């Protein structure tokens, strides 16, 4: 099983971390691309350790040389629902192991973590977080897709608050995927907030970050 490595940031307040926020990048990126979100979010969680794991596979949409830095959680050569569901299921054990090991390494209580993902990282965060026995405090999914929604009713074991953020000008992952995700999650009694951003493409902007910081702060204030 692959062992993930990750750049990290914090805690901003110093000392041992009390919480963990895991940031999952999108297709063809790596953890270095999204760890800069950590200092922006840190005022909301000054005692949190932020980590942004590099996905386990080289991206198969670029050359092998580029793939050293361009990573993927699973292949997206085939965007069919069945292929993406198979991909996320194959990678989930690797991600679960990373979460468990990181919490244990830093002696952070297993209840005190949150997941944040962009694009393919949002797919990974949603799929995994809703199926972990010990739920994350929150899941923040930016420009993502809720994969294998038909199986969720039988497989869901956690119902953390979920923030879905999506630009209505996204021409990579349609905003309709987040709208559909919100409907499915609400049917499963998952506390869900949907933020549609007018004019935003396939990106995370200040409004999305502000909303994410608010949700994280609220999730970890619950004791």
UniProtKB/TrEMBL annotation:
InterPro entries: AB_hydrolase_fold, LYPA1-2/EST-like, PLipase/COase/thioEstase. Belongs to the AB hydrolase superfamily. AB hydrolase 2 family. GO terms for molecular function: hydrolase activity. It comes from Acidisoma silvae. This is Prolyl oligopeptidase family serine peptidase. PANTHER family: LYSOPHOSPHOLIPASE-LIKE PROTEIN 1, LYSOPHOSPHOLIPASE-RELATED. The keyword Cytoplasm does not apply. Residues 16-209 form the Phospholipase/carboxylesterase/thioesterase domain. Keywords: Hydrolase. It comes from the Bacteria.
